[in-house]
Specification:
This protein has 110 residues and is of the alpha+beta class. It has helices at residues 5-24, 29-37, 44-56, 80-108; strands at residues 27-28, 60-67, 70-78.
């Protein structure tokens, strides 16, 4: 059985990336997919269930805004709880990356 490790890494990082991008400014789904894919390759289909969960857990809210290019777009906005959650994830991510980097560095000296 072969496990694609990069897929697992991406799944773990996707939530954090989405929260950070929405924190920069409110975004609609397709815009989020485009922004994320500039940094990590992700299936667009993975994004919408994550967005629904973030809304369901109270980390994001949505609103419709008219678009000159068709129907109104659903925008995602961080709630205060979502901003707190994002900041917590950023701290945890940085600690995780530092720990893994230190371990790799130590292992490469053997």
């Amino acid at each position: 059985m072969s496990l694609d490790i990069s897929v697992q890494f991406k799944k773990g990082a996707l939530e954090l990336c989405v929260l950070v991008l929405i924190h920069e400014h409110d975004r609609y789904g397709y815009e989020l997919a485009q922004s994320v894919s500039r940094h990590i390759e992700v299936a667009e289909g993975a994004l919408y269930p994550l967005l629904r969960r973030l809304v369901g857990e109270g980390y994001c809210t949505t609103y419709l805004q008219e678009s000159s290019e068709g129907p109104p777009r659903k925008y995602y906005k961080l709630t205060p709880e979502g901003e707190h959650y994002m900041r917590k994830l950023v701290v945890e991510w940085k600690q995780f990356v530092k720990s893994v980097s230190n371990l790799i560095e130590r292992g490469s000296r053997l």
